[in-house]
Design a protein that fits this description.
Blueprint lengths: L7 E5 L9 H11 L6 E5 L5 H8 L5 E4 L25 E4 L2 H6 L4 H14 L2 E6 L3 H5 L3 H13 L4 H6 L3 E4 L13 H17 L11 E4 L7 H5 L6 E4 L6 H19 L3 H6 L2
Parallel strand pairs: 1-2, 1-8, 2-3, 3-4, 4-5, 5-6, 6-7, 7-8
The structure holds 2-phosphoglycolic acid (PGA).
Length: about 270
C-alpha cells in the first residue's frame, strides 16, 4: 500500500433543511470543521445542493447527493439522474438502508446506480449493514458480504478503485437509535468487508478502499471508532446537522489522520 488511507467524515442530512436555511447551516459547520487532514463531505437534500455548494466554495469541503437514479434519463417522474448532478455534487451515497427499506432498493439496483456514479465521476459511498435479527443470529458478516457482492459484481475492480469507492458499514439497528455498535465489533466487520473486497479482486486486495462506520456516531463516541486501524472515518446522520457535534467528530478524526500519516499509533494513543 502506498500510504495510509484517507480519513473521511461524511454528513448525511437526510430529509432536513430547506434551500432557505441550508447554506447558512453549511457555512456554520464549515467554520467548525476546517481540518484539511480529513476528507469532509456534506450531503444535503437535492433541493439544497446549490446553496450548500455555494456556501462551501473555497472551504475544501465536498458536496454529495444522497441518491441517484439507475438510468441516465427517461420517463421517471420525480427522479434525479447522475448527469443532472454535474456542477452540484461530486460524491453520492448509494444503498443507504433507509432507501433499501423505503424505496425497495435491491443490491442489483444499487449495482446499476454504482455504475452510473462511476460513469459520471461521482465518488460513491456504498452503504452496507445488517438488521438486528441478523446480528443476533450470527449472520451479520454473511449479510454484508452478500450486499457487497450484489452491488460490486459486474464492475471492473480497477474502475471501483479509480472511482474512489468508499464503503460505509452501517448496522441498521444503530441508525438513528442512539445505540452505536462498539468500535471492536465495527472493526471486525470492516476487516470482513476488506476480505470480501480482496476476494472480488480489487487492486491491492482492497486495502486502499476507505471503510467508514455509521450509526449513532457522535463526538462522544467517534474516538472508539477512530482507534480501530481498519476504520477510516464515519458517515453521520443526526450529528451532521449539529455544528458542535461535527466539530468534535472532525477534530478527533484529524488526530487519527495525523497519527496514521506519521505512522505513530503511540501518538494517537497519547491523545485519547
Ligand atoms: P445516524 O445516521 O448517525 O443518525 O444514526 C447514520 C446514517 O444513516 O448514515
Amino acid at each position: 500500500m502506498s500510504g495510509p488511507r484517507p480519513i473521511v467524515i461524511a454528513g448525511n442530512w437526510k430529509m432536513h433543511t430547506t434551500p432557505a436555511d441550508a447554506g447558512e447551516l453549511a457555512r456554520t459547520i464549515a467554520h467548525r470543521i476546517a481540518e484539511p487532514d480529513v476528507v469532509r463531505v456534506i450531503c444535503p437534500p437535492y433541493v439544497c445542493l446549490a446553496p450548500v455548494r455555494d456556501a462551501l466554495a473555497g472551504t475544501g469541503i465536498a458536496v454529495g447527493a444522497q441518491n441517484i437514479h439507475h438510468e441516465l434519463a427517461g420517463a421517471y417522474t420525480g427522479e434525479v439522474s447522475a448527469p443532472m448532478l454535474a456542477g452540484l455534487a461530486t460524491w453520492v451515497i448509494l444503498g443507504h438502508s433507509e432507501r433499501r427499506r423505503d424505496a425497495g432498493e435491491t443490491d442489483e439496483l444499487i449495482a446499476r446506480k454504482l455504475g452510473r456514479a462511476l460513469e459520471v465521476g461521482l465518488r460513491p459511498i456504498l452503504c452496507v449493514g445488517e438488521q438486528l435479527v441478523e446480528r443476533d443470529t450470527g449472520q451479520a458478516a454473511a449479510v454484508v458480504e452478500d450486499q457487497l457482492r450484489g452491488a460490486l459484481t459486474g464492475h471492473e475492480p480497477e474502475d471501483l478503485v479509480r472511482g474512489g469507492l468508499v464503503i460505509a458499514y452501517e448496522p441498521v439497528w444503530a441508525i438513528g437509535t442512539g445505540r452505536n455498535a462498539t468500535g471492536a465489533d465495527a472493526a471486525v466487520m470492516a476487516d470482513s468487508i476488506r476480505g470480501t473486497l480482496h476476494e472480488l479482486g480489487l487492486p491491492e486486495h482492497g486495502e486502499t478502499v476507505p471503510v467508514l462506520y455509521g450509526g449513532s456516531c457522535t463526538a462522544a463516541n467517534i474516538g472508539e471508532f477512530m482507534n480501530e486501524a481498519s476504520i477510516d472515518g464515519a458517515l453521520d446522520g443526526g450529528a451532521s446537522l449539529k455544528p458542535d457535534e461535527m466539530a468534535g467528530i472532525v477534530g478527533r478524526a484529524g488526530v487519527t489522520a495525523r497519527a496514521r500519516r506519521g505512522g505513530g499509533a503511540f501518538r494517537e494513543a497519547a491523545s485519547r
